[in-house]
């Protein structure tokens, strides 16, 4: 049985990871020994969250090198398989970035590749703790030391980021300081990462929380029930535009209207200096049945078509602050 310490890891020459599709009902570990299985785990969201995708990409290169040695791949085949991992999901920049970084070590041999991949995981854990502390300090200095109610979206804890998490790491740091009144968690349609995963993580940590329908979030903010909105991101463009789970944009609009902070907590690795603005970020469209069905159960008449954008783009002018492990960025000056 796994734990939050085993979100994703390298064990005995293969990748082990929590199957996030089964939570909260079952905590089961995946044992991934080949590229096909890793790509499938990423595409089906068994493994998800931008920093964890970066870790999966890094470990995936080590996995591909091992599989290639077993099966006699030539350099061209190995390159093709590594690119398949990088292309498994397009929006999160961490996946491709870490794949490319570890792939550059391939000429130094498999031991060097595995060491480089492990270093990616260690760096993600360290970044999450420092980012969490910085974010909590920013909110406390902006809003005072009173207990705060934080509104969040999707899942941004250890399951998505390793260590403490990003946005949920900020929540944890506030809780540890005695500066958290509670958390409002959006259910996060269509795959319910908020209700399934974030509520599960908060319960494990003993942090008080309430679940809300996505559509209710702007209304709750307008009623003064939230002191700050804190989210993660899958990519931040150079100008501060933010790609995050669909539904984030409406939270930013509501926060601006209510005059409360909208804070994005991300590791430096999620900031993509090569992408000038949000219009250049590829936005993943996923299968229609994720919308027409709820956890496999039909929720619409047969034949209903659906729009299933996995992410939206929040313009930089709605972002109060971007907090990383190293700095606090104010996109609006």
Structural topology:
Blueprint (H helix, E strand, L loop, with lengths): L7 E4 L2 E5 L10 E4 L2 H9 L6 H22 L3 H12 L6 H11 L6 H34 L4 E5 L5 H4 L5 H10 L3 E7 L6 H13 L3 E4 L4 H6 L5 E4 L3 E3 L4 E4 L2 H11 L3 E4 L5 E2 L16 H4 E2 L2 E2 L12 E4 L6 E3 L4 E2 L4
Parallel strand pairs: 4-5, 4-7, 5-6, 7-10, 8-11, 10-15
Antiparallel strand pairs: 1-2, 2-3, 8-9, 9-14, 12-13, 15-16
Helix pairs in contact: 2-3, 2-4, 2-5, 3-4, 4-5, 5-7
Q: What is the annotated CATH architecture of the largest domain?
A: 3-Layer(aba) Sandwich
Please state the oligomeric state of the protein chains shown.
Answer: single chain
Number of helices: 11
- Quickly give the structural class: alpha/beta
CATH superfamily of the largest domain: Translation initiation factor eif-2b, domain 2
Q: Compute the average pLDDT.
A: 96
Q: What is the distance, rounded to the nearest whole angstrom, between the alpha carbons of the first and last residues?
A: 47 Å
Q: Mind telling me the CATH class of the largest domain?
A: Alpha Beta
Largest sheet: 7 strands, mixed
CATH fold-type name of the largest domain? Rossmann fold
Widest beta sheet: strand line-up: 6-5-4-7-10-15-16
Q: Helicity, in percent?
A: 40-55%
Number of strands: 16
* Structural domain tally: 2
Shape: globular
Low-confidence spans: none
Order of helices and strands: EEEHHHHHEHHEHEHEEEHEEHEEEEE
Strand content: 15-25%
* Cα-based radius of gyration, to the nearest Å: 19 Å
